[in-house]
Amino acid sequence: MNEVDVLEVGREGLFIVLKTAGPIMMSGLLIGLIIALFQALTSIQEMTLTFVPKILVIFLAIIIFLPFMMTTLIEYTNTLFDKMISLG
User: Fold this and answer.
1) Within 10 A of 75 (CB to CB), how many other CB atoms are there?
2) Number of domains in the chain
3) What pLDDT was estimated at residue 44?
4) Structural domain range at position 34
């Protein structure tokens, strides 16, 4: 395995991390933005107000995106195993 293959595996790994974590992080960011806008418009400055909705939305996003995340990780793992087999 040369340097190009190692860099390719690392690049694919980072892309998979972004691809699987992205939807969950974006949903948390979106709900945080909506709550911050609501707090700014109503002048409610309670710091703990954002925690419960964020936790619920992130939990819901994990339930919704879990099949996509598992499929992506299984495909990447199969690709890695195929590369290992081709080396040996």
Assistant:
1) 11
2) 1
3) 84
4) 10-87
- In whole angstroms, give the CA distance from residue 64 to residue 62: 5
Domain contains 41: yes
User: What is the mean pLDDT of each successive set of 10 residues along the chain, which is 88 residues long?
Assistant: 88 96 95 92 84 94 96 95 87
* C-alpha dihedral sign at 8, 14, 17, 23: negative
Contact 27, 53 (CB under 8 A): no
DSSP calls for the chain: --HHHHHHHHHHHHHHHHHHHHHHHHHHHHHHHHHHHHHHHHT---GGGGHHHHHHHHHHHHHHHHHHHHHHHHHHHHHHHHHHHHH-
In a domain, residue 4? The reply is no
User: What's the predicted TM-score (pTM) here?
Assistant: 0.80
